[in-house]
Amino acid sequence: MKYVITQTARNDDGTDPFPPNRTEILVGLKDYKLWSDTIPKKELVRRIQADLERNIPGASFNAGQPIIDQVMEIVTGSAADLAISIVGDDLEMMRRKADSIAVIVKGTAGAASVNIEQEGTQAQLAININRENAARFGINVSDIQNMIEAAIGGRAVGTIYHGTKRYDMVVRYLPENRNSIDVIKTLQVPSATGGLIPLEQLADIRFVDGQTNIYRIDGKRMVTVRTNVHNRDQGSFVKELQEKIGREIHVPKGYSIIYGGQYENLERAGKQLLITIPLTIVIVFVFLFMLFKNMRHTFVTMSCMLMAMAGGIVALFIRGYHFNVSAGVGFVSIFGISVMAGVLLVSALNRELYKSPLTVRASVQKVAVDQLKAIMMMLIVAIIGLMPAALSTGIGSDVQRPLATVIIGGLTATLLFVPVVIPSLYYWLERKGHKPAGEA
Asked: Residue 108: phi, psi to the nearest 5?
């Protein structure tokens, strides 16, 4: 490791609303070629997490990447793969529901690092001013509040100037005069007659259990159960979880359960892909028809998409990847590249067929052989160029690998099947309706 940096509680600018018991540990790894043990990064993370949990009992640990964690916390409010949030007003009831949901999530295949983001209650000092007693001694409530603020929290009473800089002058009791509830009860408050009245005669002072931090969304309180998803696609995981939670968890009217985290981005991107992919297919169809002005030739060329899609799916399955946004973009990309191979082949078939005196079968065979080198050059160069991205393990590789894998799989299937399938389809459609050039 190059370095280890820790950050406890919220950062200096206050953009991370974290409680004081949360610590972020940033670990900088050396270059992979310098590793003494050639293990995958996932295995290293698993070992580190297991060692921390074994040596620091009572603490829970989650692993992630700094940049994506920051982005997801800003965009969705949680860095987890899936965040299940209960939104409402009653924190105690919401906490009970969250505990039940956490049990369901832990029992679902694929769940990892399940926990509730918000901490539970902890003892807090509550000072409730007795207004009747304060009035009896002729003391204003604001005077009591100001004394409590100054004694315990500190109060600015002036300003000190040092050149162009300005500093507040803050007064505060010494620690030994404010570090226990018994000492706080004896704090003296001046009355209207000049006498000093102990604070315990003017207020009810006691410890109560209160929330350590309260998260909100759209003006309502929120309690969140977070989990990461391993060895399973997020779509099926969330679908199964929604069915279980809908069946076992019931929230009162005015409360709701929402699903966020990285799954929220996947769902949003999935809806966009449902529009983008059909639109891409329609646009390709229109341009192909404008090119060939023949419905049969258009459909023959578009059949390349099916081969490329099948190759991309098989490639994801072989590498053990699940469908995500990166893979979806890869599928859109291979549609265009595979159609290029089809256009190259069908255009050559059209040119040869309508000028050659050979039969349809002979013309198709001749073109299939002649165009094989051009198709191989176009596709093999693209496949070789994407191999580093498909095998990369550096920064950003988690996004690159699914994209490159889909494209390589689609292009490989196109390379293997297009030179064989397209000529066969073309011959099957044209074998009866075409006569060689020169025949009446």
From this structure: -100, 130
Measured CA angle at 174 (ends 173, 178), to 5 deg: 70
**In which residue are the tokens 């207020």 written?**
203
What is the average pLDDT value for the chain, to the nearest integer? 83
**Taking the CB of residue 171, how many other CB atoms lie within 10 A of it?**
11
Could you read off the pLDDT of 166-181 as tens digits, one per residue? 999 998 989 888 888 9
Assigned architecture for domain 265-430:
Up-down Bundle (1.20)
pTM above 0.90, yes or no: no
- Number of Cβ within 10 Å of residue 63's Cβ equals 17
Helix, strand, coil % in the chain, rounded to nearest 5: 55, 20, 25
354: helix, strand or coil: coil
Helix (H) or strand (E) run with residue 228 in it:
strand 220-229
Closest CA to 328 of 270, 256, 412: 270
Helices and strands, number each (H, E), in the chain: 12, 13
CATH class of 122-211: alpha beta
Residue type present at position 266: L
Closest CA to 323 of 237, 225, 391: 237
pLDDT-derived band at 396 (thresholds 50, 70, 90) equals low
Question: Locate tokens 């603490």: which residue?
Answer: 59
Rounded to whole angstroms, the Cα distance separating 64 from 81 reads 10
The span from the CA of 376 to the CA of 101, in Å, is: 53
Burial of 353 (C-beta count, 10 Å sphere; 0-12/13-18/19+): buried
- Compute the distance between CA of residue 238 and CA of residue 242 in angstroms, rounded to an integer: 6
CA dihedral angle for residue 68, residue 71, residue 73, residue 79, rounded to 10 degrees: -20
Domain boundaries, the chain: 122-211, 265-430
- Taking Cα atoms as reference points, which of 338, 317, 335 lies closest to residue 402? 317
Strand partners, 198: 188
**270 falls in which pLDDT band (50, 70, 90)?**
confident
Position 50 pLDDT exceeds 80: yes
Query: What is residue 438's predicted lDDT score, i.e. its pLDDT?
Result: 47
* pLDDT tens for each residue of 283-340: 989 998 998 888 888 998 988 888 999 999 999 989 888 877 788 888 888 888 888 8
